[in-house]
């Protein structure tokens, strides 16, 4: 699965620019304040890196005598060697240099090399209180220039050069340039000055996600939009929305309005969320979980509920032996493919209760009969469930999406095999017949890390769940820790696409949405640090937490 944003259609570009323009209006007041403050000293600010060291004697003498400081000071050995910028996630490489660094001043420009960078240029100009000047070839003191480089390379990579009183951010694609502006924004807001030198940076993992369960607990659209802005500044590139479950169906539907919960997001609100996310290079990944977790759908269609041999209804489970069950789910998948325009989709597949009993064939004879009719005399209920997911994958694949399924939606010893292009969203090893991550990796599957031991924030802490801490993630987790605390062999690293921190709303009223935002603040920062660079961080946890407080 490519993590990179596809080239947008003209309509998508116009939509993205409208979102960025709105963001520009909302941030220009703050940005102008930054610009006025930054220009108040009339000089180059702190020495490179904003380290708090005293300015050189030459600079101090010029200031005390009232001499005018050049707008583009020439670097000299009177400046200490710069230090690497302090950002979250940390940059992968910084080549230090001697010089005053750069800080934004009101009236100075953001210029771009390519119309594809208009959105990135307008956004950072508004955030830093600079003037957006568009495509320009001339060079002026104080410029921030955004450039698309020629050639290949990781589209999420970028180079940021601070030299001669100017900043140049370049990358192979607009995503990388955007991440460079996030680094610059953090530097300026944290210390006032971007340090002299060259940053070369790129993520280790192409998927850096946050998943939100809005089915069991509705969240307001403004709250979700605030999380998107937070995620974008931290260089996350994925927002998962789990919006259908037993407790609710939370997005307006035109094909099946009868299933929609009273408290829900309109399609217009979702479109605004998707557009805002795209402007931050974040893909919104929808999940309509099936064949389990469909209680809200079943409530409006009780004839589709799975019942056992004794006629007892099975919670949240749809009867996959009925054609009407497939039709309603396919209707919804097709409808929302037009609303969620990203290239990824989550099919769910977990916790189908028919497969948690000792003898599924005896407990659910209608499923056993349907399996044998479709796949032959030896077929089982697990075969039927696998075939169900393959059929739903066919529906979504027609919309050109890459799909993932929870790991307990893959079953052992089935005659029907899951589609080869289904990725594994590995979250637990607690299910019946649990399979080790190595089984999926050895079979060549690509895997996403949702490890419930570290990355699950489950409201109310039911069963054995406890709220994860940023410190534990920062010190003990990395993308190869897929199950529990065990690390899979390094040879599988390339198949692990990344991971996602997840908020689940099992006990919906256990926390308010503001408490959730506060509770996940440091875990999100620790998670993205390890997805950007899975190695041992340079900062201690105490220093990392202090940096997060300084960055805001």
TrEMBL record:
GO MF, any single term: beta-N-acetylhexosaminidase activity
One Pfam short name: Glyco_hydro_20b
Domain spans labelled Beta-hexosaminidase bacterial type N-terminal: 85-201
EC number(s) given by UniProt: 3.2.1.52
Annotated ranges, domain Glycoside hydrolase family 20 catalytic: 208-512
Region (Disordered): 36-108
InterPro entries per the UniProt record, alphabetical: Beta_hexosaminidase_sua/sub, GH, GH20_Enzymes, Glyco_hydro_20_cat, Hex-like_dom2, HEX_bac_N
Key words, A-Z: Glycosidase, Hydrolase
KW DNA-binding (keyword) present: no
Bias type Low complexity, positions: 59-82
Compositional bias annotation for Gly residues: 41-52
Family: Belongs to the glycosyl hydrolase 20 family.
Protein name: Hexosaminidase
Top-level taxonomy: Bacteria, Bacillati, Actinomycetota, Actinomycetes, Kitasatosporales
């Amino acid at each position: 699965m490519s993590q990179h944003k596809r080239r947008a259609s003209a309509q998508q570009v116009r939509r993205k620019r409208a979102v960025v323009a709105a963001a520009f209006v909302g941030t220009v007041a703050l940005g102008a304040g930054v610009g006025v403050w930054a220009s108040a000293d009339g000089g180059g600010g702190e020495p490179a890196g904003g380290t708090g060291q005293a300015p050189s004697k030459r600079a101090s003498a010029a200031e005390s005598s009232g001499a005018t400081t050049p707008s583009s000071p020439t670097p000299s050995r009177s400046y200490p060697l710069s230090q690497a910028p302090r950002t979250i996630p940390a940059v992968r490489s910084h080549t230090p240099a001697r010089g005053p660094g750069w800080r934004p001043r009101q009236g100075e420009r953001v210029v771009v090399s390519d119309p594809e960078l208009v959105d990135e240029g307008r956004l950072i100009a508004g955030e830093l209180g600079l003037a957006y000047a568009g495509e320009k070839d001339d060079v002026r003191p104080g410029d921030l220039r955004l450039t698309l480089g020629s050639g290949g390379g990781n589209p999420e990579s970028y180079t940021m050069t601070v030299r001669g009183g100017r900043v140049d951010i370049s990358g192979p694609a607009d995503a990388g340039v955007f991440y460079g502006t996030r680094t610059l924004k953090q530097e300026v807001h944290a210390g006032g000055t971007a340090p002299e030198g060259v940053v070369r940076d790129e993520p280790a993992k192409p998927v850096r996600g946050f998943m939100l369960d809005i089915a069991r607990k509705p969240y307001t659209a403004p709250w979700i939009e605030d999380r998107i802005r937070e995620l974008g500044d931290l260089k996350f590139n994925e927002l998962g929305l789990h919006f259908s479950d037993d407790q609710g169906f939370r997005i307006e539907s035109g094909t099946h309005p009868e299933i929609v919960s009273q408290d829900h997001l309109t399609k217009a609100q979702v479109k605004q969320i998707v557009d805002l996310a795209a402007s931050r290079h974040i893909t919104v990944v929808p999940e309509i979980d099936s064949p389990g977790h469909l209680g809200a759908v079943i409530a409006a269609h009780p004839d589709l509920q799975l019942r056992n041999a004794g006629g007892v209804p099975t919670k949240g489970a749809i009867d996959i032996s009925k054609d009407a069950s497939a039709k309603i789910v396919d209707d919804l998948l097709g409808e929302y493919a037009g609303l969620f325009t990203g290239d990824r989709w989550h099919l769910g597949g977990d916790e189908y209760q028919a497969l948690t009993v000792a003898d599924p064939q005896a407990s659910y004879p209608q499923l056993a009969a349907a399996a044998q009719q479709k796949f032959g005399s030896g077929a089982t209920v697990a075969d039927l469930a696998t075939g169900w997911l393959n059929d739903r994958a066919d529906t979504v694949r027609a919309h050109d999406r890459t799909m993932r399924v929870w790991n307990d939606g893959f079953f052992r010893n089935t005659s029907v095999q899951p589609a080869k292009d289904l990725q594994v969203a590995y979250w637990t090893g607690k299910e019946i017949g649990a399979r080790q991550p190595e089984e999926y990796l050895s079979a060549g599957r690509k895997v996403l890390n949702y490890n419930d031991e570290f990355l699950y924030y489950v409201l109310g802490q039911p069963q054995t769940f406890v709220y994860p801490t940023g410190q534990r993630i920062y010190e003990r987790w990395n993308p190869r820790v897929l199950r529990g605390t065990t690390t899979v062999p390094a040879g599988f690293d390339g198949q692990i696409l990344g991971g996602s921190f997840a908020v689940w709303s099992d006990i919906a009223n256990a926390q308010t949405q503001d408490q959730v935002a506060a509770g996940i603040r440091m875990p999100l920062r620790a998670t993205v640090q390890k997805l950007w660079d899975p190695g041992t961080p340079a900062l201690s946890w105490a220093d990392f937490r202090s940096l997060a407080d300084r960055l805001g």
